[in-house]
Amino acid sequence: MKKIMLSLLAGVALLITSCDKADGILFEDKSTAIKADKSSWTATADSETPDGLENTGKASAVLDNNLATYWHTDYSVSNPDYPHWILIDMKKDYKLVTVVVTNRQGATPNKSGMKKFSLQGSSNGTTFSNLGTFNFAITNDPQSFPVSSASAYRYLKLTALESQTGTTKHTFLAEIDVFTVK
Q: Which residues are the signal sequence here (predicted)?
């Protein structure tokens, strides 16, 4: 029995050392989604921080790939109440798979932004289809929200429906990213 085992092990070792295949393993990307390039996109909102109040706060901040900047609704004199919306023009139709939303960054996650929001898609910017209503966690980490890729949309609208505190009137976001069908 010992001779058979030694013969088997020797055969396996010979087979392994005589193999002409490379040591590296090739990986083929078979994913079905890709992060969309948002460099040419534009964003508008129902409310923004007025000029001069802080060095950021504009709707365009959710598209700049910089977590240190953020969109912030107006909290000055007018201080409008919920709901708040931000509309992104992606400049062409995309079949969305996931929308990734990142909270305004802080040493501890900011607790006074939105708690619940909805996503809608549109091809013309006026007629919108509901993509879902979601809860937003208090975290600095990006949060992914899957949506149906059955239809293509040029416009993405995020509407903040209620605040984390129930009393705060404003909201804010650092980034919005979109993953689309590859």
A: 1-21
